[in-house]
Amino acid sequence: MNFVEELKWRGMLHQMMPGTEELLEKGMTTAYVGIDPTADSLHIGHLCSVMMLRHFQRAGHKPLALVGGATGMIGDPSGKSAERNLLTEEVLRHNVACIKKQLAHFLDFESDAPNAAELVNNYDWMKNFTFLDFAREIGKHITVNYMMAKDSVKKRLNGEARDGLSFTEFTYQLLQGYDFLHLYETKHCQLQMGGSDQWGNITTGTELIRRKLGAEAEAYALTCPLITKADGRKFGKTEQGNVWLDRRYTTPYKFYQFWLNVGDEEAERYIKIFTSLSHEEIDALIAEHRADPGRRTLQKRLGEEVTCMVHSRADYEMALEATQILFGKATKESLLKLDEDTLLAVFEGVPHFEATRDQVVGAKAVDVLAEVTQCFASKGEMRKLTQGGGVSINKEKLQAFDQVLQPDDLIDGKYLLVQRGKKNYYLITVK
Fold first, then answer.
1. Quick one: average pLDDT of 141-165?
2. 402, 369 in Cβ contact below 8 A?
3. Which residues are the active-site residues?
4. Cβ 187 vs Cβ 30: under 8 Å
5. For residue 181, which of 216, 150, 207 has the smallest C-alpha distance?
6. Do residues 3 and 56 make contact, with C-beta atoms less than 8 angstroms apart?
7. Which tens digits make up the pLDDT trace of 86-98?
8. How many whole angstroms separate alpha carbon 416 and alpha carbon 353?
9. Can you list the alpha helix ranges (DSSP code H) found in 120-165?
10. Rounded to whole angstroms, how far apart are CA atoms 264 and 274?
């Protein structure tokens, strides 16, 4: 497939240096995307750049994922209004290892193909580079005037940052430029890609290569747009913070729910950017969705594709089961299939009570639900609702209000899910 054409129809091409397309048409090209290892997980804000590498590899080219073990110690001023915290070498090493594991879901690192992906860490080539050597070998090629003209620097100097711009962060574009030069010389990497906020840093690299190696050295830049929500706000942020790829921070259920809840306009854009579905498949899905938006065809398929890619088919199916539990006609069996993290994620917003094992096991349901906990205001209310078939425990109708609760009524040995009517849930944790 033609990589540039693929990006264009997917809405993933923002800027491209002249000559880039011609370079890619000559044969297999090596390109890299830089990722700052400031956390031990990527979040969905990283996904557009990662998907660019994925499409690049599918087009027959060789992707390099660069984790900035060295530059992560400094901090990139692009799009930031404050200096970031500097990380220790030990933390960075841990973060890099975790990120590689996540990237393996998107890129083929293992095959014998000439375009197998590689992970590189700029700490490997920066750790023994002295300041004096860097100033003499690299610093002399790029003028301060050139660096000051970059938007990321100008914004920070023109009052967007309370404390201005430190020398440390000012040097970031030179260090990133040197990464490009190093990969050009050692891996014959001729293209750097990234988000549109990286254009200044990337073009510093192409300029450094040209000035250090001569005008005949061919290096190019390509960026994708920064993805936003329909209202222009930053993509990937929720009230709880970032949507992470690591299940420790965002459960597969919550991850799936994020995609399921995007608007129609966003779903049409995101399914092109964040999946590998073909042009024809996506056009058909969009047509089907527009014919009956209420079925949320696009959001469901988008959630399925991205959840399976980032997590697994089994995690997607569990997220689907969990969604049915809250909004559909689920059974006790489907409830028991959930792992503890998913169960807690699904019922995070419902009233939550705690009780001891002695208070619950062997006790009458009416006593537990109306006295030990406040699921019901009174025993009379609970009795009346139970007789009308309006009370369920663990998705099974309660047959008698004074039914005695048994040990096997507890999910995972410690949870009781109480349902009053169709929409009111209560979760009891038994300790």
1. 73
2. no
3. 38, 43, 46, 80, 84, 176, 197, 234, 237-238
4. yes
5. 207
6. yes
7. 677 788 889 988 9
8. 10
9. 123-126, 131-137, 144-148, 151-155
10. 15
